[in-house]
Amino acid sequence: MKKIFVFMLTMVMILSLSACNSGSGADSKSESKSDSKSDISSESDMEYVKDKGTLVVGITDFEPMDYKDDSGEWIGFDADMAKAFGESLGVNVEFVEIDWDNKIMELDGKTIDCVWNGMTLTDEVTSSMECSNAYCNNGQVVIVPSDSSDKYQDTDSLSDLSFAVEAGSAGEKEVDALGLNYTSIKTQADALMEVAAGTSDAAVIDSLMAAAMVGEGTGYDKLTYTCQLNSEEYGVGFRKGSDLTKAVNDFFKESFGDGSMIKCAEKYGVQAAVIEQ
């Protein structure tokens, strides 16, 4: 009987030790996962960008904000300002053309570090990104052939037109809200090409782009812009919670204060749109 009692007591102790070890292991794994998550969340975008030495900027071909010169280098008001911001951080700047409709996914997936491309501060953008202060005024304008522009001076006159608009853009949002017939195109530049080719009756693009690319002395001298559909502002977008947002706001304030922002804007003819910082 005594042997049986000793055997049973031994088994209880073994099971108790096994349960303790199992619990300890689970706690250890839990703590490890927790520490891992803490490490990820504590890493700042500033540290991430400085560690890799490159700020990757998501853009589209959008004159006068981001476009290539004859040598293939990205220039424009946004491109030049982004380069200056990268220099202030001590990092290189790399420009990557993105599908504008996928800009939020590209940002969250870390294929880019920011969106700096005449981006309108819509509700979708501000809820999905950490956005800078507004730095430029803008609006969406209707583009039509010059020889028919007198017919399309207000929104009531647009109902029979077929539009080309950039997918995911503020222009697409405006024509959709008006219930107009439209086709989504990859870029605003492509939308202009559609109108020039006669495959679309009209396009809706940013007013700053229209001023640079449409009318006498431009590559689209037979096109013009008529009514403006809205008023809006541009901002730079970073990942939610990014500490780069404060850095770019400080950069904007400093560059506006020392005159370098206005000087850059004058180079591309957008100085009237710049917002005081």
Q: How large, in whole angstroms, is the Cα Rg?
A: 27 Å
Strand content: 15-25%
Mean pLDDT equals 88
Summed up, the helix count is 10
Q: Count the E strands.
A: 13
CATH topology of the largest domain: D-Maltodextrin-Binding Protein, domain 2
**Number of domain modules:** 2
Reported for the largest beta sheet, the result is:
6 strands, mixed
Assigned CATH superfamily of the largest domain: Periplasmic binding protein-like II
List the helices and strands and how they pair.
Elements lengths: L1 H41 L2 H8 L1 E6 L7 E2 L5 E2 L1 H13 L2 E6 L5 H6 L5 E7 L2 H6 L1 E2 L4 E3 L1 E6 L16 E5 L3 H8 L3 E5 L2 H10 L4 E5 H7 L9 E6 L3 E7 L5 H14 L2 H8 L10
Parallel strand pairs: 1-4, 1-5, 9-10, 9-11
Antiparallel strand pairs: 2-3, 5-13, 6-13, 7-13, 8-11, 8-12
Describe this entry's structure for a reader:
It is a single chain. The model is unreliable at 1-41 (pLDDT under 50). The strands form 3 sheets. Strands 1, 4, 5, 6, 7 and 13 form a 6-stranded mixed β-sheet that branches. This protein has a 5-stranded mixed β-sheet with strand order 10-9-11-8-12, sandwiched between helices. It is built from 10 helices and 13 strands. Helix 6 links the parallel strand 9 and strand 10. It has 277 residues and is an alpha/beta fold. Helix content is 44%, strand content 22%. The chain has 2 domains: 45-137 and 234-273, 3-Layer(aba) Sandwich (D-Maltodextrin-Binding Protein, domain 2), CATH 3.40.190.10; 140-230, Periplasmic binding protein-like II (D-Maltodextrin-Binding Protein, domain 2, 3-Layer(aba) Sandwich).
